Amino acid sequence: MRVLIIEDDPIIAANLYDFLQGRGHVVDAASDGVTGLHLAVTGGFDAIVLDLGLPGMDGITLCRKLRDDAGNATPVLMLTARDTLEDKLEGFARGADDYLVKPFALKEVEARLAALDKRRAGRVTGKPLTAGDLSLDPRTLHIRIRGKEVKLPPKCIRLLETLMSEPLRVFSRKELETAVWGQEQETSDTLRSHMHVLRRELAQAGGYDPVENVHGLGYRLVPRDAH
Description:
By secondary structure, the protein is of the alpha/beta class.
């Protein structure tokens, strides 16, 4: 993989750089947000390791600019010393694909990056989907609800695409996690966090939440005309 490390702690950055390079990956690094964003946009990387606390531009802002301004979908693994649900939700809302709390094992970083790259390579590109007044084009990633455009992180888009593939069908947690992450997750927090972001953004844009939690079974998409 071609990996970009954006980390201001020189020891952590050096450890990541040396480990990943030693494992055969092509690695570049930046120690501040402005330089990191420039490299992320122009470097053609397969994955990005992004620290949350950076000088010049913090990781959340960098991720938002990468997604919204540059339209760049390179998978982002966010690193942080904070382990609160609010921090995770904010990171996912701004476009992060995965999350690791410091301290972490270098082998886990590599495994997470490999999984992100594999999922991106295996992404299904299908026909535009519609469900009531909700539409999603998997090729352009354009999402609209009641005529308004919706901006979503990559994993939330995949969640929505799965739910929209069969409106009204109840998808189990395992089915959704396998569709989005390639395998069932160790805890339900990952799916719950992404589902929270998805439902919040749809509700804010469309004035209603088309995703229903079917207690004990999973989630389903209910188009507005089916309410």
